[in-house]
Specification:
Layout (H helix, E strand, L loop, with lengths): L1 H22 E9 L2 E8 L25 E5 L4 E11 L2 E10 L14 E7 L2 E9 L1 H5 L17 H4 L15 E9 L6 E9 L10 E11 L2 E11 L22 E14 L3 E14 L7 E16 L4 E10 L3 E4 L11 E11 L4 E12 L18 E12 L1
Antiparallel strand pairs: 1-4, 1-19, 2-3, 2-19, 4-5, 5-6, 6-7, 7-8, 8-9, 9-10, 10-11, 11-12, 12-13, 13-14, 14-15, 14-16, 15-17, 17-18, 18-19
Amino acid sequence: MKKTSVALAVGAALAAQAAWAQSANVQIYGKLYPSMLYEKGSGASPTGTVVSPITNGTASGTNALGSTIGMVSGNSRFGFRGQEDLGSGLKAIWQIESPVSVDQGSGQIAGRDTFVGLQGGFGTVRLGNMDTIFKNYGDTLGFLGVSSGTWLSTSDVLRKVGFGVSSASSFHLRRANSVVYETPEIAGFQAGVQWSSNEAKTATRDPKVLSFGIKYDEGPFYFAIAHEIHDDLFGGSQNAPAARRNTSDQAVRSEDTATQATIEYRLGKNHKFEFDYIRKKYDENATVTGRFREYRNNAYLFAMENRWTEKWRTALQYVKSEKGSCALVGTACFTDGLEGSKYAVGAAYYFSRRTYGFGAVGRINNGKAARYNNAEFSTPNPGEDITHVALGIAHSF
């Protein structure tokens, strides 16, 4: 009798599992790409160098970055995702993705793109913590699949300001409390819009993010235009010197905006080329003399990735950010020395479809007043250039 009961229970469980599998599926996935990294700073602006009044820091002639060798793991990740067929062409979709700190053994559950949503003939709706439309529709090529969250990311020069090191100025972030809608793809075209609030609205501030764009992806061509608006996030003030900031003045509001155009051309399956152009503006309605008022900046990116044989691939990127223009309340403002650039070259050798070794070398060149920063172990002083050399292993599952 007991054997019969056990057999029936096991059979019922297997039947239930089979029935569930018919309407839903779950995938376990991830990517790990730790590397050994050499990092060095050089060329910091000497004492007495006149820097922009919005540069957060003074010229000291001292390089903040020593010659350091360490291990980094970028945005190595582990996740679950799945879908359930709800009938009539409707699906429930979900994902839980977490960072994996290979070098230190730490990570935040659901710290990366995590959402639940519905997908059907109307398009896709997702709710959760997700990359913005602006981030997803631009800078599409990456760098050998290992640029996310590492010094190889172009966003540190392309999508931020160069006079401070706060991420508040970034147009390359994941946003919590987000609602995303994307249309169905029609003849290669697709559009998306995303709204996010940090749930910190007050009587005088209403911080939120609106991101939207349209893209075309068909054959060898990819085109995209995206725009993003940050209300009351103070990307300018939070990078300026303390005396210039408006964050504590409740009468001041901020609006930071960016527009980006992206073009990618694919020559067969082996060669890809990308060009991005971005215009950024950081605006605050300050009235106190000497406070931050406005900063405008343009930047562009060229990148290429090539597969030469079954085993070998190479990548190259170049980013240039102009010095821009600025305004302070009742005080002269200049941006001399706020320009910056970055280049990186690298190669990968594939042991299999999912496992490869990679190496890369790169450098950020900061203008005399700039602090563009992709350092892993510290932050640069004004004018300090940053050099990196890395060797690592990547595995996807």
